[in-house]
UniProtKB/TrEMBL annotation:
The gene is WDR41. WD repeats lie at residues 58-98, 99-146. It comes from Merluccius polli. This is WD repeat-containing protein 41. One of its GO terms (cellular component) is lysosomal membrane. Keywords: Repeat, WD repeat.
Length: 485
């Protein structure tokens, strides 16, 4: 057994780190169980491309930690099902503030920056299942503003629908922010309601994206509704629905901006749609199919019977030129320029992937319900190529999947220059599903999990160098002083 205080840095082999965290990285009272299942992929202890060789376990939450938000270059905030908002120092792992106020789980968190004179100040906005919105000052820990008892005027059956905000979107250039749920509400930076729109979706608004020409895209069930925000002569704001996009066949799980001219959406049945941000037309449509598809004489594409969780696009991320899609336990990299898949790994984790990030045009990272955080590198496929289903991203089209005019399905290995994703690092530490991670570049990586913990991962060589420099500076400052004792 490795005995190390959880509040200090630990530099050890991968095997030692895994054994240590198997024993300590579980919530109090929880059963200490096996950390990881037998993985489809495994990587040895020697991981030369994995620079995360030091870690620090951070305790402070007592329920699932779901959200991480960067405040500035040295601080970030965490929040989750315990209703707490905690502020941390990225360099030291020190908990700086603990902010209490919500009585139920936090459903969304975002930063809100206002400029006073020439000095910007960043605050935190949180939404909660307790039907409240709060504004926090991460410098003082004070709850500056709060809006309680949000209640929708939409009637369903015989009861009012309580408005639980599910997502937040800050429009910095207009000094307003939006909350989505049973209603779409627009607020100013002083937490005053400017305007609102009711929706009749049972699920409500689950994602929001800012578009050009003062427009906003809102995901509701299978549809994306486009709203336009306008200001009248007296500066009052109003929301108008201008278009409804109904091209998805199932519930939309994720909605992201891609660049100034495009945004993307992913659905529960593996549909990835690329949209024009100005006219809202479909620029590309891809359908990720997991089973062998049989085309009839009319080249109609038929789905097999995959499990819904294996098809669902759980998360999308982009760097403006590539889109990384987490589909079930698989990863797919899609080129916006060529509108083709450029790399893929069908079984990247043992369970559903919850969060992804493109580190560069060839490196990426993912985390999963299996408790792992993995680093990947795009490499050329070996020969013979990995066998792939003809259904992966099988439709190269500009319309809905139901159309009969779709071109024949091509196997993914027939796509020129297709590459695979090779595992280069495996960060083993959490004993529960890793919800998301937040990168501070060379300063480190933060992960959060259902095990109530966060882990701060560091570059061991960099940390060793910084400690050496600090020790040298301390000795130099004390040079010439008489020795004590």
């Amino acid at each position: 057994m490795v005995s190390i205080p959880t509040a200090t840095w630990h530099r050890a082999s991968k095997a030692e780190s895994a054994e240590y965290l198997r024993l300590v990285a579980v919530p109090d009272g929880a059963k200490k169980s096996q950390l990881k299942k037998n993985s489809v992929l495994c990587i040895g202890e020697e991981q030369p491309k994995n620079w995360f060789t030091e870690l620090q376990v951070l305790k402070g939450h007592f329920d699932i930690v779901r959200f991480l938000v960067q405040i500035d270059d040295s601080r970030y905030a965490s929040a989750g099902d315990d209703g707490l908002v905690l502020v941390w120092n990225i360099e030291t792992g020190e908990k700086l503030l603990e902010m209490r106020g919500h009585s139920q789980q936090i459903t969304a968190m975002a930063t809100l920056t206002r400029v006073s004179g020439d000095t910007p100040h960043t605050s935190l906005v949180t939404a909660s299942s307790d039907r409240s919105l709060s504004l926090w000052d991460p410098d003082t820990g004070n709850r500056v503003q709060t809006i309680s008892d949000l209640q929708s005027s939409v009637k369903r059956t015989s009861e009012d629908v309580f408005c639980v905000p599910q997502c937040l979107l800050v429009l910095e250039r207009r000094s307003v922010w939006l909350s989505g749920g049973a209603e779409l509400c627009v607020w100013n930076i002083d937490f005053q309601l400017q305007c609102q729109r009711q929706n009749h979706s049972d699920i409500g608004i689950t994602a929001l994206v800012e578009l050009p020409k003062n427009c906003i895209a809102a995901a509701m069930d299978k549809e994306i509704v486009i709203y336009r925000l306008t200001a009248s002569a007296d500066r009052s704001l109003s929301l108008a629905e201008v278009r409804c996009l109904s091209d998805h066949q199932d519930n939309i799980r994720t909605l992201i901006p891609v660049n100034d001219g495009l945004f993307a959406s992913g659905s529960h049945v593996g549909e990835l749609i690329l949209w024009d941000s100005s006219d809202w037309n479909i620029m590309a449509y891809e359908h990720i199919l997991w089973e062998e598809s049989q085309a009839d004489t009319q080249s109609e594409i038929r789905l097999g019977s995959p499990k819904p969780c294996e098809m669902s696009i759980q998360h999308l991320t982009t760097n403006g030129t590539l889109i990384l899609a987490a589909v079930g336990s698989g990863l797919y990299v899609y080129s916006i320029l060529t509108k083709t898949v450029v790399a893929y790994r069908r079984a990247a984790h043992d369970s559903n992937i919850l969060h992804t990030m493109l580190l560069s045009d060839s490196e990426l990272m993912s985390c999963s319900e299996d408790g792992s955080v993995r680093m990947w590198e795009m490499q050329d496929l070996p020969l013979p190529a990995e066998v792939a289903s003809p259904g992966f991203f099988g439709m190269w089209s500009f319309g809905r999947a139901s159309k009969q005019t779709e071109p024949p399905v091509r196997k993914i290995t027939e796509v020129p220059n297709i590459r695979t994703l090779e595992l280069t690092g495996d960060l083993i530490g959490h004993s529960g599903a890793v919800q998301m991670f937040l990168s501070f570049g060379e300063q480190g990586l933060v992960t959060c999990s259902t095990d109530h913990l966060m882990i701060l991962w560091k570059n061991g060589e960099r940390q060793s160098h910084l400690r050496s420099v600090a020790l040298f500076n301390k000795l130099e400052a004390n040079e010439g002083l008489p020795l004590v004792g």
